Amino acid sequence: MSNILKVTTPTTGYDNNNAIKTGSENMQQSQNVQGQVRPDKVVRPDARSDAAPQKQDGNLKFQFETNFDNFIQQLARNGNITEEYSTVLLEKLGMLAQSGLKAGMAGEISKFLSLISMNPEEMAEFLKMQGDSAVRFNGAFFDILRQIMQQTNSVELRTGILSFLKMYTDMAEGQHLLETMRQLIQNMKGGMLRSDSQQLQQMEQGMNYGAANGNVKENANLIKNQIMPFLNEYITKMHDRGMLRESTAMLGSLTARYENGDAGRLQEAFLKLMDFTMFAKRFQNMDPAMLMRILANSDFERASRKNEAMARLADIIRSGVMGEAGIENKMAFKSIMQAFLLNESVYMPVLHLTLPLNVNGTLMFSELWIDPDDQSGGKQEGDERVIKGLIKFDIKDVGFFDLFFLYGTESEKVSIQLNYPKKLDASENEIRNAIGQILSSNNLEQEQLVLGSEDGSIPISAAFPNIFERKGSVNVTV
């Protein structure tokens, strides 16, 4: 018979010198007694696992991190990718173009390498194009909007301007949104039954994926009135609560953005802003037709149309992530893609530029982090505007360089710290003289110059502490 009560028989021959005491003062009080659940009565908390924790040092099961916290963690992991860029994009791309890749991938790489080939005199123009294509709200029109935002006390006017800018952004990204929706629908068709997939294919034939930015009504109506109801009905019928439902929700979000970029809506928003005296005073001679011409020919739009090299680079990275450049390079391309996306974060208060170059046959890659109005030095009213920058660049067969600078826009004085590879220690005087000549040829006064071959690179957190101090950003935690 099993010993249910767990009764044990004392072993003979041993004396038990400890007298048994049953006093309540010697009994340990159980701290883990679990009371009966009484739904009709409120009782005191006990040690039940579904009650509040009894220990003061209990660990939280969920970490309530904000989007900003996640951004900082990603920045710490991916903030400095110059080495990976240079290794993958500059050293391997030439070999990949000649290897047994798909014809499309090899052609894209060859075209990209030819687009970044230039002489030293062409570098300044390429840098300007990169800067213009990186900042959408650039130019005289947007400078006036910034002035109005700073001068007005009207919440309605500020809200109207921000809404107008959001519409403009959605309109300018119309073709990109269309391509994203096309890929999303393609993926959804692969996860449906054949007959339903064919029905979705027939509906999709009515989509005009070549529609110009701002011309959104036909595509938006087709998605809202036919494709979305069909997908929702399919999800309900098949009880699909996985990828298809998530993709449908994403399609709805993209459609909302796409529809918000309607050119007619943008013009109506501009006319509503004209009802404000301060706004009308600055744009009194501008009508909606003139507005559309200005937006279509902004510095950003012109530079983006000319910046074919970065468009090719985006295609190469996309193909590399899909494994078309070899499985061994897939993770490197994925890291590069994540770094690009990180720099588009709303928390990034500094301008980030990438410069892949082939100068007179010498491959190099550079990253530029620029704060056009540095406030970290305790700037007071009346002080000159200071531009702060961190430049990381790699020259093939030479090594990695870090250059940190502060530039006063009025005094035109520059302070520079340059970290160079250790093997160039013997050339320090030559480097110092070369920097001095570059500054003097550009009418810049050298205020301070620090050279060294320290190990490691300058971290972004040290160059731009305002990023980590959460200055110049807004928390958009959902």
Write up this protein:
The chain has 478 residues and is an alpha/beta fold. The protein contains 19 helices and 7 strands. It has a 7-stranded mixed sheet with strand order 1-2-3-4-5-6-7, sandwiched between helices. Residues 1-27, 48-64 and 471-478 have low confidence and may be disordered.
As a percent range, the share of strand residues is 5-15%
Distance between the termini: 61 Å
Oligomerization category of the chains in this entry: single chain
The chain-level mean pLDDT equals 77
Question: Strand order across the biggest sheet?
Answer: 1-2-3-4-5-6-7
The helix content is 40-55%
Separate helix tally: 19
In terms of per-residue confidence, which ranges show pLDDT below 50 for 5 or more consecutive residues? 1-27, 48-64, 471-478
Q: Give the strand tally.
A: 7
Largest beta sheet, briefly? 7 strands, mixed
Radius of gyration: 32 Å
Principal-axis shape? globular
